Structures are given as C-alpha cells and as structure tokens.
Amino acid sequence: MTGTSLQDEPLLSICLGGNRKQYAAGDELICEYQIDAIDTSDMQAVEASVLWITEGKGEEDLGVHYFERRLPADAEDGDLRPLRRFKIYLPNSPLTYDGAILRIRWCVRLRLFARRGKEYVLEYPFTLGSVPAVPVDPASAAADDDE
Amino acid sequence: MARLFRFLEKKRGTRRTGSNLAGSVGEALFFAAIFLLGVGVIASLISLHDPAAYGFGLGRWLIIMVAAPFTVLGSAGLIWTVLRIGVSVERRSAMAQTATEIDALSDVIPARPEYPTIPDLEGLKNSPGIELSYRLPRTETPAWRLLAATIFTLAWNAVACVLTVIAVRTHVARESDWYLTAVVLPFLAIGGWSIYYLLRLIVVHTGMGPTTVEVSDLPLEAGREYRASVWQQGHIRVFKFEVCLICEEEATYHQGTDCRTEVREVFRRAVFEQTDFLIEPSQPFQCSFFVAVPADAMHSFQGPHNSVHWRLVVRGSAEGWPEFRRAFPLVVYPSTQTLQVQVSSEQRRQAMTPPLRVVAGGAGVRA
Model's pTM, two decimal places? Predict the structure, then answer.
C-alpha cells in the first residue's frame, strides 16, 4: 500500500465490494473510492484505474483495464470528494503471477491531482485467478541477490 | 535421386540431383575462395609503396579494378548462399505473396481479444499438418546467426589477409617486421576459427534434416491433454532424441546503453525420449505422444518487455554431429482451475464482515 499519513495531506480511500482480495476471471469488481481532508478548490482531477503491472528483472509493463478521469466540471457542485462507485468485469488474462524473474500483479489505483502540481497515489492490490507461485530455486535466488 | 556427383548432366532449373549439404558447403567455399583471391590481390598491390605504379594506363589500377569485383562477388555470393539456407523457394514465394496481400487498413484496427496479453495464433494456425491439425513453426531461425557469422568471417579474414600480405612482403624484402608478424598470427588463428565456426553452422543447418512438429489442437488449454507428433529427417545415427515441454520467463531490460534479455526456465517435462536408433533418408523418424500442460500452470503472456513462453523443444545428439536443439512455440490458455478463485473458509468469514476502507497512510475506518 502506498501513501503517507501527514496531517496536511489528503486522505484517499479505496474499498472493493465485499472487502475481497481475490477475484476470478470474469468476476464483477465493485470499487468505491473517496477523497477527504482537502479543500475542493485544491483538487484539479481524480483518476481511478484498474490495471496490471509487471515487476521483476525486466522493465515494467502496464496494462490498463479500466480508466476514468474526473474533473471538477464533471462532479455535482464541482466537488470530487464524495464517494464514487464504479463497477467493471475483470478480464480472462493476465492472471496474477509470481514467477522466478517476473511478477504480474493487479491493483486499483487512485490518483489525485492537486494544485501546484502535487500528486497523491493510492493502490489497492488484489489477485486475479489462482496461479500458484513458482518455487524459488535457492541457487538462482542467491544469484539474483548478488546482482 | 542420384547418389554420386555427375560432372556432365542437364541442368534442371534450380533443383539438385546431388546432396544439398555438399552443394551448399561447396557454394560457400567457392564464393569464399573468390573473395579471398580478390582481397589478396588488392592487398598485395596496395602494400607496394611505389607511387609511380598508380599512373593511368594498363598499370596497377587495371589489376585493382579487376580484383575488386572478385571481392564484391565473393562476399555477396557467400552472404546470398547463407541467406538461402533453410528457406525453400516455395516459402520465399509465399512470403513475397503475403507481403503484397497485406491489408493496411484492417491490420491497424485492433480487435479486443477474449484473452488480452496472450499471444495471438495468427502465425501458428495457418499451416495445417499432415497427421494432426496444425504444424508448428520454429521459434528461432538460424538465418540471423548465420548472416552475422558470415559478415564477421568476411570482415575479419579480409583484415587478416591484408596484414598477412604486408607481413610476408617484409620478410621477402629481408626487412622482417617481427612485431607485425606477431600481431598477424593471432589474427590468422581467429580467422581460421571463424571459418571453422561458419562451416560448422552451415553443416548443422543444412545437413541435419528438418524437424516437423504437429499438434492436434491450438491453443492448448492448461489441464487438458493433446496429441503431438514429431518427424525428424536426415541420415544419422541418433544417440539420444528427446522432446520436452518447457515454460520460460523472458525479461528485457536496459543496463546503461545495453539492452539485455534474461530467460529463466520455470517448467520442464520430458514428453518423449528414445535412444540409439538410425534415421534413414527414405524413412524419417516419427514419434507420437501426448502433451499435457499442468492445470495450475501459468498461461502464455506477452508484454512489451516481459513474457511467458511455452514451447516444445526437440533435442538430440547424433553420431558425428553437434548436439541440436529446435524449439516450437505453443500458446497456452489458462485452465478453468486457475481462472477461478481458491477461497478458504477464513476468507469467506472475512467477506461477510462489514467492508473496511483503506485510507492512505492511516488506519482503516469502518464504513
């Protein structure tokens, strides 16, 4: 989970329906997000996305499955802070994967654009599918650590 | 098909009555000899420090102009010979035809796939098999390796040839340059090794007969079993012949200005193995077996920098031949098992409690 808890920083919150952490392919994902502790006039835009990213040896790949960007003009009274809910269906692939030199992980990412170019990001990871992790070979793991 | 080389016979188009291996190697040696002859002549003339010899007329320029086409012809002929290894005229013709039939408009409109990030089957399903549904293409083509080896061999030996001529000339003129001679010797050794390596590559890719792999269905679904067949042609005694189903992770990254790729094998299962048998030209070796991707295996994945590949790899060692390895790509879709969620009783209990909001950096608060 990313983000900080400084008093003068806005609070970003994400909630997945049923507090689920695991989803099957094709499942319905219901997400609610909310922003608090920031003045309306300080908010420029809010982006919510459902995406997968890769981690490991290679450079990061990223695939966005769902994306929405809201501006004050899109919201009632120009206020982007109230609870916002969206519903999507998850795809068949790529499934969450924990391999030897590659990891694929899914998350809901909320990004707030504030005045003066400041950005605040919060991620909520979840698992898609149930591919078991690749057993780690101790020799290769040690070699990876040396690099 | 004639077994012995005949010097006088009617030419029959581009077909050969003799051995393809002997033909390709002979052609490569012929062009290499022409190349070295041209380079040698030019080098011996340039190394003479006599400005008067470069005047217009029937002097040294004429010989250089005659020798230069030898160099160009030899190098171009060798590269052309290498490029044609393993590519039939039918395939070249089909590739040229396909290139003219590409519909520029339809190819730029992406279709939303049912399985995103899983490689499409475009290049895998367009070749029907003889016994089973699909014939698989090979993943790696030897063409680029052969081309790189050929260019390196040509360039290195050209430099070595020039240095050798200059060094020999100093000895003939009784003004021995031992420092230059000492530099030339390792040059010649590397040049000789490069020629040996190139010939070995040509022999491996022309002499060892083609390998054909067919599968009963594509894509493969993890957890299900499929039939596969392999044909191996050639005229060899095989010590060991093995077909493996493997899964590899591949990651590409930049390190400084270098672009590097790391491959890690994460799954291997031998699906067929046979030892000590003979393959005759008239009767290729054939084997059939079943291939099953484990139900909990990761599916094929293709990202811009990372990927998960499934392959059928044919490996063998034969009498008088270097060990060969040929890989054939497969596309694996996720099984029903991995598409679902394995929910524990603890998770079920948690799901029934009121949802917890995740707050950036702070403690959660009940909704």
Answer: 0.69
